[in-house]
Design a protein that fits this description.
The structure holds two protein chains of two kinds. Chain A is mainly β. Chain A contains no helices and eleven strands. In chain A, 33% of the residues are buried. The mean pLDDT of chain A is 93. Classes of the chains: A mainly beta, B mainly beta.
Chain lengths: 111, 113
């Protein structure tokens, strides 16, 4: 079945850039997403990218997609302490099918 | 828009009791998903509905779990009887089907003692 893999932990210093990586197995993935979960909260959609795109930028966030290698990354520029959270990569192949999530990457920002 | 609304936010119940979790999706969204989150297993899809019809319930752990969506604005997830291993955060999410992502509710934290 489909699988999404992420590293579990990332620690960065405040002001540095963070890069969270994700790999997926489903070659028919059409939509790829990044969600953020703060402690005790639900999942918040950060950004998404269609499989026919290579890059998407939204303020401090940059998403890069290498479809050949099935690799997705999320770069957070000028990381702040408020960015500390768990970041989930997810994919599906249509808007009405379930998202397949990775296990999440816990980002810790050191002041 | 108030987003996806789940109730209750927290539920503590004794083993063997029936538990009902509730979800109100975003108006106009035609897909609804129930997920369970635990430390050990991460986010697991339990069941999803398109246009109020259950499409895939293969993620429902056992017959003790059941879900309904009687109309476009309401869904329930019921556990009867509940067991301690059901303790988790249960999330409901809805989607418009346009590929711009799901909106998650704040979740129900269930503790079965």
């Amino acid at each position: 079945g489909e699988d999404v893999e992420q590293s579990l932990f990332l620690s960065v210093r405040e002001g540095d850039s963070s890069v969270i990586n994700c790999t997926y197995t489903d070659s028919s993935s059409t939509y790829l997403y990044w969600y953020k979960q703060e402690p005790g909260a639900g999942l918040q959609l950060l950004t998404y990218i269609f499989s026919n795109m290579d890059m998407k930028q939204d303020q401090r966030l940059t998403v890069l997609l290498n479809k050949k290698d099935k690799h997705l990354s999320l770069r957070i520029a000028d990381t702040q302490t408020g960015d500390s959270a768990i970041y989930f990569c997810a994919e599906n192949n249509s808007g009405n099918t379930p998202l397949v999530f990775g296990k999440g990457t816990r980002l810790s920002v050191i002041a | 828009d108030a987003g996806v609304i789940q109730s209750p936010r927290h539920e503590v119940t004794e083993m063997g009791q029936e538990v009902t979790l509730r979800c109100k999706p975003i108006s106009g969204h035609n897909s609804l998903f129930w997920y369970r989150q635990t430390m050990m297993r991460g986010l697991e899809l339990l069941i999803y509905f398109n246009n109020n019809v259950p499409i895939d319930d293969s993620g429902m752990p056992e017959d003790r779990f059941s879900a309904k969506m009687p109309n476009a604005s309401f869904s329930t997830l019921k556990i009867q009887p509940s067991e301690p291993r059901d303790s988790a955060v249960y999330f409901c999410a809805s989607s418009s089907g346009t590929g711009d992502g799901y909106t998650f509710g704040s979740g129900t934290r269930l503790t079965v003692v």
